[in-house]
Amino acid sequence: GQNIDQPTEMTATEGAIVQINCTYQTSGFNGLFWYQQHAGEAPTFLSYNVLDGLEEKGRFSSFLSRSKGYSYLLLKELQMKDSASYLCAVTDSNYQLIWGAGTKLIIKP
Amino acid sequence: NAGVTQTPKFRVLKTGQSMTLLCAQDMNHEYMYWYRQDPGMGLRLIHYSVGEGTTAKGEVPDGYNVSRLKKQNFLLGLESAAPSQTSVYFCASSRQGEVYQPQHFGDGTRLSIL
Predict the structure, then answer these.
(1) How many whole angstroms separate alpha carbon B67 and alpha carbon A20?
(2) What are the DSSP calls for B12-81, one per residue?
(3) Is the omega angle on the peptide bond into residue B8 within 30 degrees of 0, that is, cis?
């Protein structure tokens, strides 16, 4: 079966760095997305990785290792507004998005 | 910048009632999707469409029907609502073809079935 695993919840301090991990087992791989979802709102696109390595976009970076079926989202200089759920999703061989359950990130002052 | 618009935002139904959720996008996207989101679970695809007049089943299609009569609109119907269909429903759209194109989501419809 297809499976995406993320921690359910993480807590971090304002100004710090946090890494949210995602491991996946899917039938084929055509890329991995990270989305941010604030409570009661729509998911919004953060990043896309299809090749191994690190993609940096401002305070957010995303890493992919296809051989390990592993990705992480790195958030630097955390702000209170970063409190949200972070969703990992993989495009499988049928070009369907398979979604993880999301990681709820709590930022404390 | 409307993007993807869903109506209604909230609805309470009784078991056995029917209703239609409306989704409209103004980005000229070919692909449209309906998802449901339940606590502790990832987004699950109900139905999707790769173009006007076409629809296909996703992971959890039972109890739902869809129509894509116009490119900009994608309708999700519940013929006979059941409590198990209590959920938050999201519509999304994306460009055709390129796998790296992200999906753009509406604000969701919160549906409760009593």
Answers:
(1) 38
(2) EE-TT--EEEEEEESS--SEEEEEEE-TTS--EEEEEESSTT--EE-SS-TTEEEE-SSTTEEEEEESS-
(3) yes
Let me know: does B103 contact B2? Beta carbons within 8 Å.
no
Are A4 and B42 inside 8 Å of each other by CB? Answer: yes
Q: Are strands B64-67 and B73-78 parallel, antiparallel or unpaired?
A: antiparallel
Q: Taking 80 as the threshold, does the pLDDT of residue B22 lie above it?
A: yes
DSSP assignment letter at A42: -
What tokens does A59 get? 């305070």
Q: Is B10 on the interface with A (CB under 8 A)?
A: no
Chain B residue nearest residue A43, CA to CA: B105
A91 touches chain B (CB under 8 A): yes
Count of beta carbons in the 10 Å neighbourhood of residue B28:
10
Instruction: Choose between A8 and B98: higher pLDDT.
Output: A8
* CA pair distance A88, A100, nearest whole angstrom: 5
